[in-house]
User: Fold TetR family transcriptional regulator from Paenibacillus marchantiophytorum.
Amino acid sequence: MSQVEPWLQELLRLNDEEEKMTEKQIKIVQAAVEIFSQKGFAGSSTSEIAQKAGVAEGTIFRHYKTKKELLLSIVAPIMTKLIAPFAVKDFTKVLDAEYPSMEQYLRAIIVNRMEFARKHFAVLKIFLHEIPFHTELREQFQETFSKLVLEKAYKAIRHFQAEGQIIELPAPTTMRLIISTIVGFLITRFLLAPNADWDEEVEIEHTIQFILNGLTLRKA
Amino acid sequence: MSQVEPWLQELLRLNDEEEKMTEKQIKIVQAAVEIFSQKGFAGSSTSEIAQKAGVAEGTIFRHYKTKKELLLSIVAPIMTKLIAPFAVKDFTKVLDAEYPSMEQYLRAIIVNRMEFARKHFAVLKIFLHEIPFHTELREQFQETFSKLVLEKAYKAIRHFQAEGQIIELPAPTTMRLIISTIVGFLITRFLLAPNADWDEEVEIEHTIQFILNGLTLRKA
Amino acid sequence: MSQVEPWLQELLRLNDEEEKMTEKQIKIVQAAVEIFSQKGFAGSSTSEIAQKAGVAEGTIFRHYKTKKELLLSIVAPIMTKLIAPFAVKDFTKVLDAEYPSMEQYLRAIIVNRMEFARKHFAVLKIFLHEIPFHTELREQFQETFSKLVLEKAYKAIRHFQAEGQIIELPAPTTMRLIISTIVGFLITRFLLAPNADWDEEVEIEHTIQFILNGLTLRKA
Amino acid sequence: MSQVEPWLQELLRLNDEEEKMTEKQIKIVQAAVEIFSQKGFAGSSTSEIAQKAGVAEGTIFRHYKTKKELLLSIVAPIMTKLIAPFAVKDFTKVLDAEYPSMEQYLRAIIVNRMEFARKHFAVLKIFLHEIPFHTELREQFQETFSKLVLEKAYKAIRHFQAEGQIIELPAPTTMRLIISTIVGFLITRFLLAPNADWDEEVEIEHTIQFILNGLTLRKA
DNA sequence: CATGAATGAGACTTCATTCAT
DNA sequence: TATGAATGAAGTCTCATTCAT
Assistant:
């Protein structure tokens, strides 16, 4: 999964929408991402963004009606992208075919999402900070998430439970435990100790083993 | 540990410093907590706080030189409180005496910190949101954390490793995995699905077992 | 005249009105003088004055209804004091009796007013700065000045002109030239170069000779 | 010197820098000059300035970052202009060539600076009032003055002393006496009795004669 | 498309003054 | 008499947004 799977390509193609953008517009977005992620949305000023983008103050509003629209244009797409790998049409088929073991599945997810986080670090940070303050964002995310991901993820979990690979906890609990561990890993890696030079491979391995062990019955 | 241990009382007593506060000052702090946690620091206005507190806007600045000082007066103490249970002078003694098994230890921590999170939910939320934007906060937290908690926690981890209760991962990795799981639990409980009525006891139990299993060697 | 003349004593006695003042009130006035002279009236805050005086904010307003009243209580008396030496009831008699020559008269005035300026430097500075901005002050000063000083000074000038000691310029012109020179001397001494160590005696002598020469006919 | 000398033109040309200014910006400066000179800097409010300029308050801060910057933009240039006529590269040559007698020199200076004071009355008033409260202003003025004027003025004084036109007082003393008289003249004319209709020509003549007499040896 | 001067609402903050204690 | 918490008007300054060029 470190290579983009065919079934994902369609989804991902939606994202490369930097096409119709003016050169100036791209600079605006880049500047906005940088400043929003440093100071937060409410703490940033459009004039500062314009300055960093090397653009007149008015130019921003030629492309985005309001400051908030600029934010959403940055943050909304990331939600879809974030979720994309899980939004597969027929999940269990995928599972059967490609991930015979939970371990391979987990490793694929972690590696893939880590690349994603590395690439979109700043935007993800903005997303995390702003989602509590913008109802539309939150609702859109919740809807997308529960529609596209939740049931499919539950299916996958039950699939591995049925196969006896993991224990029979409630699916939401299982999911919470997995996501907590992965997100905790990513946050530590990119936010808390971005400069610490650690052995990424080894940490990933520990993390995967922790999840697998955690979800496996201890033999008495 | 759901009861406050004697060795904690001193530490905790530092916190009930709402003494010298005017009635109005208390109202200001309450209003500020509510509004900051809803809209974020930069998105809140002092006039709104004053209004909600039923106080003239000038009154805020009689007690706090700046809006930011108001924020810090709210958020700084929570850092110490958050860490308090781990800032024990002689940790291993405590461990020997009171927590023969890692399981008991984990349960104590989770229950205790859950009560704490329940009580200080709003302030914790503010803390989490603002810490990336305020260097002083971040540095103070890092210092306090590494001084008071880190080494002691590592000691505890090594203690349980020596006893053969958990496997020999690097202490920082072990710690990351434990904290991720606990924080993930608390965030799910209080932030993501605060209204979902789930069986807290059972979820705690699952969480503890997940951590313990995760850190225990699978018997081949 | 470096000693206080008998006819002045009455006038001067009006000034030592620090009698009925509370200890705190005195401290307030001292603090106000210091701060007003450093930052100007409009640039000073009553709270700063209270702080420097070691007094509660409200205490100032127990003694002075408004900030401006505090200013006037400081500045108004200095006007009288400043003018006092010239406000003699029967001036020409004084002149005949005590100052046979213009030179002696000038020297007396300069020495005496220099001591005055040295003592009341800060208050005089406040007075000079504030007089353009406070109509009452300006009017009161103009009235006092023209009533008590102007005619008497003109009389003295004409007296010395009649005696042939100085040339027959218009009295206002003569007065302007004398006052300009003296005030210029005092401002240089106390404001522009207060730290320069110069020979005061010699400078006074030069100044007097300049005025006298300036008002004497050059012999062809 | 009532006509602008050629060597001055360059210096003076620096001043007509109202070029790049918006129409509104010019109105702001005009309003600010008027209000500052009436109420002093600290006693004026930006809202009042905006109102008198017929401009939104925000517009002031688009052109000047702070209220103080507005003050300095008004007051700083006047310092150079005030001094300009004395900041000539080779002063004694000028003296030799154009002012054979001290009298002509004095008359030229007085007339020229009187026109200047008449034209820039309000700004000069602001300058005089504010210089004690703004360290930067004071230091900049002292530096400019001592660099550009002092030595040259001393040279001129010694030039006239060497020619026997004036007596051998120390140059600083001589300068103090001359400036006191001239400044006293200007202040009387424009500040103390601006409405009194006096014969300016005659007063100038008296003032010049006073200075000349004052600095000339009385023949015994 | 792009500019940047202009706006005016509203942000944070100060301050003279009042008043219950 | 003295205090100092409280006030609210006013101050300086910021900022998203508009619009003529």
Q: What stands out?
A: The first helix of chain C runs from residue 6 to 13.
